[in-house]
Amino acid sequence: MPRPSAPKITKACMPCRARKIKCDAASIGLPCSSCVSRETTADCVLSTRKRRTLRGRSTESRGTLPEDHGLIPTPVSHSRLSHTHSNATDHSNTTPIDRSIHASQGGSSHAHNSPDPLEIHLPRRPQPDLLYMNILQDTVNKSATGPGEAANAAGNDDDNCLHTQIRGWNPLLQLDEVDSEYLTKKGVFKLPAPQHMDAFVKAYFDHVYPFAPILNRVDFMESYRSGDCSLFLLHAISTAGCSYVPIEVIQECGYTDRSAAHVSFFLKAKLFHDFHCQGGSLPMLQGCMILGDIVPDHPSDRDFHYWFYNSVRWASRLGLHNTNARPRNEESQKLYRRIWWVLHNADVFYFFVNTQNLRLLATAPPIEPLTNDDWEDEDLRLLSDLLSPITHEQKASLVAHSELAQIFGTLTKTISSEPQQDMQRVMQPLDKWRMSLPAKMTPSDSPTNDEMYLLEVLTTSYRFECVVCRSLRRGRWGIRSEDVRKWARDRFRDATLELDSILKKVLLSGIIKKIPTTFITTIAALLALHIESALDSSQSDIARSMARVSIQFTMLALNQIQDTPAIKRALPAFEMVLSKNKLYPSSLHDVAQVETHGLQEGNVEDESVHVAMQSDPSFPQDINDQVSFLGGDIAGFEFFDRWQMEQLDFTGILR
């Protein structure tokens, strides 16, 4: 075996080498001009690179095929070019910056063939297990270095990495002409007009991103405006933004309503994911996480479970679970920590609602708590038209959700392993956390004082308190004590009253159309609980009457957001259930009767509430006989113990 060659200094600094851009460090010294312009002078260092051996050169000659980070093969690039040319004629009066994202999509896919910079910084040394590839990698590292250089084997470049060479020998399958033509006909390479695409991006960053900050916003905007952004990620962002852009934007894009746009963008993103024809591991992870927080209004096997499982898979490939495998760049470390905590929260909440779900991250190594310092320092002077500054409340929201996930994870483990413990003592951490929340999220010196984020966190906490107390009341975890059940019944009632109060505050403040999907699905779950209480013969008459009143204003809230895809699918089911059980009036004559009865009981209700409660006359009279799951006592359904109510996912999802 040839002796290792003497190391030489590469001509490009590490950041420029990672981004595949020209570097003038060799001529002007460090820091280079590119790092100075990007304000990353601290990272501008030269890396030591070993000379290639003869065997390495022969390997390289065999491994010239593109890597798995490429966009798409040439036929697809040509199809995109033709589409972009037509777009350019339709929107010739737009600014060059606005057209850049569309124009560059038709160019060569060379820009997409470079791995994401975050992936470049990952150490190349594998974990010491018994996978044959890791054993071979260890062998190559030991034989390629001297006795004192074994520890530096992980610093070798891609040319000396066994895994990289094998990827060259076994490249991913490329799309053939048939696949390219199929994707082109499906319109997956089409984007809305630049001004409309900007509206979707802005809506995503204003209403979705604050609750799941899984992107580096400045880096994304740079790639978006330069045209190097992953189309899979753009379609995922457009799917999430459909619920928040003005309806005029939806219609100008050629869609009849939000649901049509939602389905179109969702199917395009799904096709990109199925064919894996664009983007590296990080954009694929981010896109899957965005799609996992979406409730479609149509049946699909690609539910939130599917996207969450794929998100965990991509996160494992990136090494997010391994603190030693994270990038050295501080901004990248912050991004990875936020992504990991969003996944961790979802993992806990998914399992908490339905124990049939598996905890995918239960054995992951512990990670330090998230803080408000885990966000990048952003310069938004050139991006203020699309990005708003991150507020204290937005940062505190994710931190609070992370704390809540840890509390509920510990609480569930304690109750399931030691069911005889004092439940009041078990709930103390949740009560203390909730009392400290207002001071953490809305400090007196905050310039924004946006209460929506506090209300959303409180809603999540009360929702899952309902899950715990309802489960205890029904004897879950082997608890048979009547005292515990009575205590759980009282806590459950208090939690639902708190949810009612928050919902009324959101309705009166006029922010219901700005709330995230988690809050929307909580409204549907709350309505299901009120229906259950109204039909529960074991409840007192006053409790059942109060449940009927709560049903009215909860349905009023759902009618305010009935065009939201997450609710559009659930609302007809609720209307059928309520109509069958005569829980709200189905005609004007019934409205008059209910109003008279309400006045006699001293309950003065606004007429608009009753009008909003009218049943949709388009439903046939015998539709309940056609839907088997509506028969019988609806109170027997496990509204919170299962994610789905038969074919209807209206009990919702969480991040």
UniProtKB/TrEMBL annotation:
| Region Disordered, residue ranges | 52-124
Q: Where do the TM regions start and end?
A: none
The identity of this protein, by name, is Chromosome 2, complete genome
Q: Name one GO biological process term.
A: DNA-templated transcription
Where composition is biased (Basic and acidic residues), the residues are 57-70
Instruction: List the top taxonomic levels of the source.
Output: Eukaryota, Fungi, Dikarya, Ascomycota, Pezizomycotina
Q: Which organism is it from?
A: Gibberella zeae (strain ATCC MYA-4620 / CBS 123657 / FGSC 9075 / NRRL 31084 / PH-1) (Wheat head blight fungus)
The record ties this protein, via SMART domains, to: GAL4 (SM00066)
For this UniProt record, give its keywords in alphabetical order, as a comma-separated list: Metal-binding, Nucleus
Gene of origin?
Answer: FG03207.1
* Zn(2)-C6 fungal-type domain sequence ranges: 12-46
